[in-house]
Amino acid sequence: MTPPTVVDNAVPQGRVQSTPMVTFEGVTKRYGDAANPFVALDGVDMTVGRGAITGIIGRSGAGKSTLIRLVNGLEKASDGRVVVDGTEVGQLNETGLRGLRREVGMIFQHFNLLSSRTAFDNIALPLEIAGFDPAAIKAKVVPLLDLVGLGDKSASYPSELSGGQKQRVGIARALATSPKLLLSDEATSALDPETTQSILALLKQINAELGLTVLLITHEMEVVKTIASHVAVIDKGRIVEQGPTFDIFTAPRHETTRILLSSTVGTNLPEWLRTGLKAAPSAGDRILVRLTFFGATAFQPLTAQLVTEIGGNVNILAGAIEEIAGEPFGTLVVAYPATPDVLARADRFYAATGLSTEVLGYVA
Amino acid sequence: MSPDMLFDLLWKSLLQTLHMVAVSGLVGSLIGLPIGIFLATSGKNELFPAPALNQAIGLVVNAARSTPFIILVVAIIPFTRLLTGTSIGTTAAIVPLTIATVPFFARLVEAAIREVDKGLIEAARAMGATPMQIVFKVLLAEARPSILLAFTMTIVSLIGYSAMVGAVGGGGLGDLGIRYGYQRFMPEVMLAVVVVLIVLVQLVQSAGDALARRFDKRNRKS
């Protein structure tokens, strides 16, 4: 593997998380005219940590494409400030913007490679644009081809490459001018799950080796869960929740986050169980509880203890253990009789072990 | 007519046609290319936004394209005379042919450039490219196969148009066909002219197709 020499301004480990790479302050974006305005972004406040991988997740039409395009000035904010590494994007003229864009790489859902250029020449394009001479271009492009694992595809045209290979070319192209920030616009949304994982692994590797800050937008929770250390959830032009990915995913506070998460994280109740669920208990009902394990509790044999504590009358309805932002996270849905003494014993057990619980309802 | 005479006439007329088509095709396309690029990039929110000028030029191009060629030939006689000193002959015929080529080729170039994926323009902007760099490094490079096909189509159309300039003594194959084949009742001349034209158009089209294919990397089989 090529040593990480392509980025000259790699951030030393100690400075990670100091001043943010990108700050959005009260950013609003309106399209259309005064009579017929469409508000794409509505007072967005957000920071993107230096050296981190930050994900912005939302459904289509939530405003995430607009948000990421404000960072390199492809779109202009109607109100508010977007600051990239100390520079306010809105204050830059065209020349200033072009300078900024050479320090901010971008990759796209549909790769946006030139069909008339080989892999090598596609990666060379941003360098040609920046005025590098052929020798300097070659010295930059060859290691980049190796970095993305396409050393043997230098002379291939995009039509001769698979989707994953095209995105690798796109990534190498985005890194050509040694940017300090990489913007990823749904970079894996056109790829199959296996290829998605390999591209995410590459982004993670680049982030670690080059100290490159990555800001990605996606509608796939899986992407955020796999590589983002921080996440912001956007809905109808507003950031509804942001923070470390693990915290947001294990304890979502906003409805949109819950809906986005329901298919990815933890366990879903089977249909037959959900339809029979009641909000209040009647005599003889069983209580349904979702237990969440993370950190230290993820590795303890708590299920066995729970069964012992409550007295054997527990059944397990669903469960899963997964990894979120590199940390183990488990969920278990259990049911036991909703009688006062059992509930009291269970609560004592939860309090003693620090398990986090959520009562889902009652079933007959 | 003896075969030698027929061959002589055909050869002379073919050279006149080639002369007219080559000069008007090259000059007309060279003028039409930048106009086509402008038409494709000067709309609202495009690379060189100038919607008013875009519409004005679009209007002129449409007007020129909807004027029947034979009327254009006659209508611009004063201009032709100003430029070439005469209004008859092969050189004079080049003027209306060139003028007809410009809007024709410009519209084809515009269409070819508009076919280029908008995502490529965005990617180039995100790299910090200037609008000019986007035109030369992205749009023209990506549209090259289509532009080559457009040029081929222009040349083929010009071969057809050049048959009409016989009306102003332009000479060429079409003129030969009308004067000998039709007016002097010599069907063998007419047949020979048609055969030569068919072969000529075939050659131009095949050459254009081959060239366009050479530059088209969009559907390459590895």
TrEMBL record, chain B:
GO cellular component: plasma membrane
Cellular compartments annotated: Cell membrane
Transmembrane segments: 20-40, 52-77, 83-106, 147-169, 189-212
GO terms of biological process kind: D-methionine transmembrane transport
Listed SUPFAM superfamilies: MetI-like
Family matches, as Pfam families: BPD_transp_1 (PF00528)
KW Lipoprotein (keyword) present: no
Highest taxon listed in the record's lineage: Bacteria
Membrane topology (UniProt): Multi-pass membrane protein
Keywords: Cell membrane, Membrane, Transmembrane, Transmembrane helix, Transport
Domain ABC transmembrane type-1: 14-208
Similarity remark: Belongs to the binding-protein-dependent transport system permease family. CysTW subfamily.
Record-given protein name: Methionine ABC transporter permease MetI
Species this chain originates from: Shinella kummerowiae
Gene symbol of the encoding locus: metI
